[in-house]
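ok trying again, last paste got cut off:
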Amino acid sequence: ADKPIFICSPLYDWKTMADEGFSWWILRMKRAYDLFDEFRIDHFRGLAGYWAVPAGEK
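nice, full thing came through this time. structure:
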């Protein structure tokens, strides 16, 4: 493969999410509970240590 596996992963606007009380995440988790008896976050460390390279940078 010639592209990183996460090239199409979304970039979260953490400041806006914090300002909104993380409502998007809360709704996402509530919806998951509507669909499934249980779920897990497989790679929380990856989520907590999230970073991005700005477009056009190397």
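cool. Residues 14-41 form one domain. The chain has a mean pLDDT of 81.
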